[in-house]
Each structure stands twice: as structure tokens, then as C-alpha cells.
Amino acid sequence: MSGFGPGDPFLADCPARLAVELIADKWTVVVLYGLSKGPVRHGELIELIGGISRKMLTQTLRRLQAHGLVRRHAYAEVPPRVEYELTPLGATLIDPIHMLTEWARANGDAVLDALDADPEPVAHGD
Amino acid sequence: MSGFGPGDPFLADCPARLAVELIADKWTVVVLYGLSKGPVRHGELIELIGGISRKMLTQTLRRLQAHGLVRRHAYAEVPPRVEYELTPLGATLIDPIHMLTEWARANGDAVLDALDADPEPVAHGD
DNA sequence: AGGCTAGGTTTCCGATAGGAACCAGCAGGT
DNA sequence: ACCTGCTGGTTCCTATCGGAAACCTAGCCT
């Protein structure tokens, strides 16, 4: 069991780990997925993503923006219009995100089946 | 802007969405990464993954086990030995997880640079 | 004037994460 | 025989987070 070197996302402080924590988040993945096909408005994302609140959407987008993955474009119109899109750096995430969502689409049922079949994983003495 | 259909992880209740929420989690990704090279002991994971506590590790592993992604093997020895490994279903996650961690390794620095350069994303009026 | 729109923030409260401390069970040293 | 240590797990307690709903801004329309 070696082959893990420095730069692996195991070290708590290394940039790789921080990057994982940035995107390995319930809403973040779905938001990035929503952005993966081009610029989207705030309201579109709200309608697209079932269950997200304005607060969490804004918060997630802000965090991604602060980390250079998302660009925000506010048009000085009225009513206001704000579009979000992936930066070039953010676009490099499209493939990983799509692999994840593809996996989820393909295996979501299997995962639920397993949960249904195994209501009691084990309780501290096998 | 369409092309998103049913089965996409957008619907709050669909299995794909639940599957995303299962793995899109700070510790889950790192734990799956730790499991991706073969059976590992609880204590090994603790040492491997910087910053994780026993509680969060156990909790994460239990959840993955309940969803059929991880198998737990407790040997009746003393001192106790418990090994965890991916199930075949869990193994289908290796590629997506590795894409994520590869992305993190490649872009972690860029993400931190952006954070450093952009300490103030925007504050509600562009 | 009042209401509508769209994006964002604030407030409040229940749920969760997370660390520290504790527990079980047995082998081995003394 | 007792005390200690090794390993995995759980319990307790608190700081933080998530989420719903209300409120805010600013201009156009009626």
C-alpha cells in the first residue's frame, strides 16, 4: 500500500486537497453541472436544480467565483439580469463532473437497491 | 438551453441526484480515493487521510457500505483488524474519483492563486 | 402610487459536522 | 493477577451549516 505521493489529496493542507473540498459538495457538483453547457442565469439555475434555495445557490456561485472557476456577469438592466459561466479553468472541470453525473445516472438505482437490501450495515461487532 | 432530460441529477428526488449527494462530500471522495487501490485497514485510512477523525471515517464508511459501495471485513483477531474494500459497484467509481483527484492535483495551485488574486468576488452590485 | 420583476441578503431555527473523551476485549509484560 | 496498550467504534457536546421565508433594491408598467 504505497504509490501515494506528495501532491495526492491526502495531505490536509495541500492544494489538491483544498481543491477536492471545493468541489466535493452536494450543491457544488450540481451547480457546475448546470453551468457545463454554457452561460446560465441565476433564475434558470434555481428552476433547473430542484430543491436549491437562492441562498445556497448564491453562496455556491460566490465560492466558485472566488476560486476562479466561475465568472459572473451582471447586466445593468431592469429587471436585473445576471449570468454565470465557467471560466477556462472551470471548464476543465466539465469532464470530471460529467463522469460523476454519468455514473450517478447509471448507478443511482443500484445504489438505492443496495440501501433497500441492507438496512443494517453492521453494528460494531461483525 | 435544454438537453437536460429526466434522469439528470437535477430532479431533487431522482436516484441520480441521491447518488451525487452520496459521493459529493468532502470526506467521501478522499475515502473512496483511499480505497481505490485495494483493501485498506481502518487505521491505515486514518493515517493516510490527513485531518479525518475516527468518527467521520467510520461514519463515511458506514454510509458507503449501506449503499453497497464498500464491503467491511472484520477479522476476529486481537487486536481487532478491520479491512474495507470497494464492492464491484464501488469499483465503478474509481475512474470518476480519479478524474476528480487528478484535476485537483493539476489545478489546485491555480485555484489557490485565483483565491489569492480575488479576495472580493463582488458584493451584490457589480 | 402600487405592483411586478430578478437577484441578493437577512433572520431564525433545526440539523449536522467534528473533536475529545470514553468503551470493549484480549495479549503481554511485570 | 493486574495493569497497560493496541484497534476499532461510540457517545457527548458545541460550533457551524443548511434551509425556509421575509425583506431589500431599483426601475418599468398600469
UniProtKB/TrEMBL annotation, chains A, B:
| Positions of the HTH hxlR-type domain | 14-112
Give one Pfam family, short name only.
HxlR
- Please give the superkingdom of this protein's source: Bacteria
Quote the InterPro entries the UniProt record gives.
HTH_HxlR, WH-like_DNA-bd_sf, WH_DNA-bd_sf
Q: What UniProt keywords are attached to this protein's entry?
A: DNA-binding, Transcription, Transcription regulation
Q: What Gene3D superfamilies has UniProt attached to this entry?
A: Winged helix-like DNA-binding domain superfamily/Winged helix DNA-binding domain
The protein depicted here goes by the name Helix-turn-helix domain-containing protein
